[in-house]
Every structure is written in structure tokens, then in C-alpha cells.
Amino acid sequence: MRTLVSELPGVVGSTVTLSGWVHRIRDLGGVSFVVLRDRSGMGQLVFDAKPDVTVESVIEVHGSVAANEKAPGGVEVRVQSMRVVSPAALDLPFPVNQDPGKTSLESILDNRMIALRNPSILSIFRLQSTILRCFAEYLRGLDFTEIKTSKLIGTGTEGGTGLFSVDYFDTKVYLTQSPQIYKQTMIAAGLERVFEIGPAYRAEKHDTPRHINEFISLDVEMAFIESEQDLMDLETGILAAIFAGVRASNQKDLDAWKATVPDPELCARIPRVSHDEAKEIVSKETGKKVYEISPEGERALCDWAMKTAGVEAVFVFAYPRKSRPFYTYPAENNRTKSFDLLFRGLEVTSGSMRINRYDMLMENLQAFDLNPEGLKDYLSIFKYGCPPHGGFAIGMERLTQKILGLASVKEATLFPRDRKRTRP
Amino acid sequence: MRTLVSELPGVVGSTVTLSGWVHRIRDLGGVSFVVLRDRSGMGQLVFDAKPDVTVESVIEVHGSVAANEKAPGGVEVRVQSMRVVSPAALDLPFPVNQDPGKTSLESILDNRMIALRNPSILSIFRLQSTILRCFAEYLRGLDFTEIKTSKLIGTGTEGGTGLFSVDYFDTKVYLTQSPQIYKQTMIAAGLERVFEIGPAYRAEKHDTPRHINEFISLDVEMAFIESEQDLMDLETGILAAIFAGVRASNQKDLDAWKATVPDPELCARIPRVSHDEAKEIVSKETGKKVYEISPEGERALCDWAMKTAGVEAVFVFAYPRKSRPFYTYPAENNRTKSFDLLFRGLEVTSGSMRINRYDMLMENLQAFDLNPEGLKDYLSIFKYGCPPHGGFAIGMERLTQKILGLASVKEATLFPRDRKRTRP
After folding, report:
1. Within this chain, do residues B43 and B137 fall inside the same structural domain, yes or no?
2. Are residues B57 and B125 in the same domain?
3. A84 to chain B nearest CA, in Å?
4. Where in the sequence is the domain holding B58, given as residue range(s)?
């Protein structure tokens, strides 16, 4: 029966079997210390002589558990026997047991298969698993149904730009940029409240710390809402649930990056400012005249929110019509019932109330110079009774990045795809 | 404040606001009955005169809740006022309020956006949402971490056949057939136990009720196992959790298809037979000499399991080496440490213990005539210490299909993609 490293403090005095990876070897002549890593953490093994094993090898050891104040966790295992389950070659391409801050992002990603063994790097994805859990649990608690929709579409909702094409038997299809048409279909089909967790694709040539070409979109759509304010309320609840979940389950992972999550209680205080107000705030904070909210402006807005509300996030609503997709519900003065959430200086969510009236949608298609012919399936949703609704999408990797304070969104992606990177 | 139809029995005597879709209108002269559909179910509205509204329109009504033994659920709402929120055109392309058994699969899928409103059809996807929940919850309870890996790869693990190619900037990539290499990477990176829910692609020309070209793969990988028996134990637990969850949450959805799930208690009795034994059983049951287990043979095996163990499922293990991928752990007599799960006559899972030794893997590549050059990233996992491990994948749509007894797996797919179908 295998014991996990994290269980050792509870079994001092007994004999145990441990399995895991050799994280570090320290040979002091008569005695050798080995740090063993398993899924629960790290523990100290003591050998009478230098063990014949390399770093990163997988071993199984039998030994007795003894208290030792100087050992990490206050316990160590005095090894009686060791078996090398799987030996590691000596030419390790990545320094697994060192601070990844000393290694370039390029090297981390080029050697991804091994770099992921680094405990700090791996901790990013333990935390990400909690985000996935809390997002789904919170929404299920509000009667949302989880859906899984196709990632291959015949034509783009918003035209063919920014789409990757796929050779599909004798025809061409495209990778979806978002499940937009499908989540709207499902709320109109009667589910009313749906969420989807799935990949989304953007064939954009950006190569910045904020962009990746494939990402996981945490998508939400909800019917019978009054306005986009209901959606911001919903997202506030989701964020509070995620922050609470991360605090409860991932303190070690936060510590690995010297990161903290906002107090879940403070989420209700996230300021909501219109796009016009946001520009004024940025002007005031940066002392520059502002025409569009730049990445610098997004950071200034979050700093302002921290100063005024104690939380590094801000909802910006009422974006101009020309900057949002054709299905966005219009508002007065050429504005829209739309919003973004900026968190720690980065846009992590975009959302809106959607047009649910067939005639209004047809008008908007004309205004956006789009051909209704290619959108026939989409338009049928609205022709046969569709409740008022809206939704949003949270970028999973961006949220992870900002929770942990990572320099690039690629660090928060297991196997990132960018313009040049298609492996591993 | 909106009341849901399902809440009506608890508020007899009060005045409520309901919102939803007009499912059916029955005009009896002096009085009209309207069936209102919302996400919670269906309820009866009573109007003094024929309401000016079409089937599938979204309405909001105010009225008083009265007990009526003859009404569905024992209550009805006597409507005082109605507002048409979103009118439906009269040329409904699909009979939403009729038994979908009378409609062809082609028509259901061609008119998918509207066909999904049919309560029986929609119920398939409520149940599917429970499968997703129970799969994840059960595994999280056993310390599994959820991962999200790229669906775009530079080269196929098993060569380029059966892959869809994607134009990716100036190069070509492929849609993944499975997250195989990535889930193995993550168990070796130290997570030990991972699961992934994501799309998988097969560019196969099959056009049968069992095949789709894009499906959701419920993937599991687990380290420090002794043999493939541990994996069958794990899947048994997953199935029992899913069946119990469906029984608790989806009785109405099961009823819509006159379906039942196996007793979760019986899952532990699912027979495990070797591939050779399975062929003998099929021979005996069908009276025919058997060389390979055909779809007919799979049905015969499940019938046999029902007779002998009271459960319509069977694990078949020890498949011949030539019929399994190169990474499958070999066993005696040219067999492998692999297994399939057949459920109600259909393969819904394929799994195996994997080779975790670098030298054995290199030998196997040669035996399979595969080039190690294209698998460099994959091979590095094993070069630097990899514990014994294995895993499997459950086809979400096939499991849904078989739980509900649907004729085609396409019925269990929201927006199926087959050789000819790329819309809606």
C-alpha cells in the first residue's frame, strides 16, 4: 500500500512504501538526503550511503518514518530499500529542480514535456483545474446546463477573417472563434441557461504576452435577463466562487508564485463604468488625452479600481457600436449593451446582451455589410421566438495568468499555439 | 419576479408571472388552453378567449394559480394578461410539439436549430450534462486533476492517416485524434492522475449510426497502476457514479425515451473476459465461427453479460498486439494489456496500460514501422523517468446514445459532423 508524502506527518513511527520522482540528491559522505516528489508534495528520504539513482528517476522506497524538526514538514523517511522503477537519463534538457524564473520562456516552451515537471510550473495547472471546477459548479448551482458544441463550422459568424481553415473531406470548414451561435441556439431551444468549456481559435498574427491562437473559452449564455447588468452580476458571482475555491484549494500554488487572489467578498465592489467614463478616468490617471483604451489604459483603469474600491478589476460597459459584433444589442447614442471585464490590467472577459429580434438583426446585418445568406441557420433561431438573453466568455488562460501574476499568457497554457509554435 | 412552471404546485392561490415558449394551443371556443414550456417543464395556461399568439412564440403572462386535477401537475394558471416577448413565424420548419420518432434523422439534423426545441430531443442534452458532471466529480474525488491540452498537433502520434489537416499560418497542422501524448506527459510531469474533456477528430469515411467525425472524448490517465485491471476498476466506479447521477437528476429525460440506466450496484459485476474468451462466447451465442468481433458479436457479448451477470456491459481485455496502438503495453503470446468496454452492444471505451520504458517503446516503434524522429517530444517523457501508467477514453456521445437507446450516435450530438454534414 502506497503512502503519499503529504500523509507522512500522520504516520511517524511506522514503515511505509513511497513512490515518486527523485527531485534532488544531496550527498554528505556517510549520509545522503534525497527529496522525493509525488503528486501530494515533497518529502525527505535519508540513505546510509549515496543511492545509485539519477535526478528525475522514478523510485519506490520502503522505510521508517521519523520525526525530524529540520526536515521539511517535520518528518523524514529512513530508507531500508529502494527500487528504481524508471531511470532518468543524465542529459535532462531542463533544470526541473530550479527556480524557473531563471529560464527564458522560449526554453520553458521548447522543453515543455520536461519543464512541466518543475513544481512551480506544474502548480499553474493545479490552480487552473480549480478554475474549471468552480466555474462549472457555480453555474450548475444556478440551473445552468453544460453543452458541448462543434468546433468546425461551414462559415464564420463574422465573416471569414481570423479563421483557420480545415480540409474536411472534399470541402473546407473553419475552426470556431467562439460557440456564439450554438450557445444562443441552446438558450432559445429552451435550456435558457447554458455554459460551455471548450477550445476557441483566432487566426490572428499578434505575437504578444496576451495572445495565443488557441485558448479555452469559458462561455456563458443566459435568457430572460433585463440588461447587461444582470450579466455583470452573474460574472461577479463566478469570480467570487473561483477566488474562494482557489483560496481553499491552491494556497501552495499561490505561494509558489507569491500570488494572492482578491477577497471574494470584495467582488461585489468591482466598479462598473461606461466606456466614456473609462476614457475619462484613463485620461485623468495617465495625464494623456485618450481616444481608445490601450493596454496601458487597461492597466490604469485597474489601478484606479484598486485605489477607489480595493479590488483590481473593473467592468467597462456601453462600448461603441462599431467596436462590437453585429449581434450585440444596440443602446442609445450608437452605444451597445456590452461590457468587458478588466482584471489586473488585462481584458479577461467580453460579453453583451444579444439582439433577439429578427427584424433588428436583419437591419444590423445590413449596417455591418454582412450577407444574411450565410447566416440562415443562425437567423432561424430568432424567427421562431427567442427570449431576451446575453452572455460572455472568460479566457481561462488569461484569468490563470492574472491570478498568478505570470508575465505571459503562454505560461498559463499547457501546450500553447502561437504563430510559430505548433509543438510539442 | 418570475416563477418557473415547476414551482406552480407550491404556490396555488397566488398570482404569478411566468415566461416561456408557447408549446401548444387548444381553442375550445369560450376557453383556450395553452401549454407553456420553460426550462423547468410544462404547465397549463387558461385563457378566456383565444390568445393572439403563435406556437413557439415567447410570452410573459400574469395570472392566478389554481388547483385542477385534470391539468398536468395538478395546477393551472388562469391568465389575466399576456405579453408577446418574441413572436414566432408560422412556417415552423420542424414539428416541435410532436413525437420526434415520426421524423427522419435527416430532417431532425437539417433543421437542428429548431428541432432541439422538441422536449424529447432536448432531454438528451440535459442528461449529457449530468454525464459530464458525474465524470468530473467522481475523478476529482480521487485526486485527479483536470487538464486542457492543444487540439492542434504538428504530426500525428500514429502517423498521418485519419487526420484532418489545418492551414496554420505558413504551415500545416492536424486536429488531434486523442490527447494521448499530452495526458501521458501530465502524469509523468507529476500530476499522476489526470482527466480531460475535449473534442477529438477522426477523418474516417465511415457513415454508420456509430460513427461521427468529431466527438467529445472523456479521457483518463493514471500513474502507479499495477495492471489494466486497475483501469477497469476505475471505469467501473465512473460508470456507477454516472448511472447513479442520471437516476437522481434525469428521471424525466429517461422517461422521454422509455429508457433506464443499469443499477449502479451492478457495475461491480460487469464481466471481464479476454479477447479469446470473448470470441468463444460470441461463437457459442451466435452459432457462427468467429475470427474478429464484429458489431453483431459486440451485441451478442452484451446479451450474454445480461444473461449471466444481469448487466448489459462487458470488459474485453488482452487484445492482439497488431490491433492496438504502438504505445500499448505488450503481454504474453502477442497480446496486450488493453481493454474495451462494450455497453448495450457498442464499444464505448478503449484503454490500456502504456509502455513506460524508453527501450521497449523504441523497439515497438520499429515493430510498427514508425519513425522515432517525428515522436521526439513524446519519447522524451520516457527518457527521464516515467511511472507505470495507463488510461482510457469514453466516447461521450456513444455513452449518451446507449443510455437512452437512441438509434444513432448523431442524435446524441448537438451539432454532429459527418462526412457530408458541416452545418448547422
Report:
1. no
2. no
3. 9
4. 5-86
List of chain A residues whose C-beta atoms are within 8 Å of the C-beta of residue B378: 113, 424
SS (H, E, C) chain A: CECCHHHHHHHCCCEEEEEEEEEEEEECCCCEEEEEEECCEEEEEEECCCCCCCCCCEEEEEEEEEECCCCHHHEEEEEEEEEEEECECCCCCCCCCCCHHHCCHHHHHHCHHHHCCCHHHHHHHHHHHHHHHHHHHHHHHCCCEECCCCCEECCCECECCCCCEEEECCEEEEECCCCHHHHHHHHHHHHCEEEEEEEEECCCCCCCCCCCCEEEEEEEEEECCCCHHHHHHHHHHHHHHHHHHHHHHCHHHHHHCCCCCCCHHHHHHCCEEEHHHHHHHHHHHHCCCCCCCCHHHHHHHHHHHHHHHCCCEEEEECCEHHHCCCCECEECCCEECEEEEEECCEEEEEEEEECCCHHHHHHHHHHCCCCHHHHHHHHHHHHECCCCEEEEEEEHHHHHHHHHCCCCHHHHCCCCCCCCCCCC
Q: What residues of chain A lie within 8 A of the CB of B417, using their CB?
A: 150, 152, 168
What pLDDT is attached to residue A293?
Answer: 95
Q: Which of residues 388-417 of A touch B (CB under 8 A)?
A: 388, 396, 414-417
B17 vs A: CB within 8 A: no
Total structural domains within chain B: 2
The predicted-structure confidence for A143-186, as pLDDT tens digits, reads as follows: 999 999 999 998 755 556 789 999 999 999 999 999 999 999 99
Residues 219-278 of B with CB under 8 A from A: 224
Chain B nearest C-alpha distance from A158 (Å): 15
| Chain A nearest CA to B344, separation (Å) | 24
- ipTM of the complex in this document: 0.97
Same domain, B216 and B71: no
Write out residues 202-221 of A within 8 Å (CB-CB) of B: 203, 205, 214, 216
Contact between chains at A214 and B152 (C-beta distance less than 8 A): yes
Same domain, A289 and A397: yes
Average pLDDT score over residue span A197-222: 96
Tell me which of A51, A86, A121 is where a domain ends.
A86
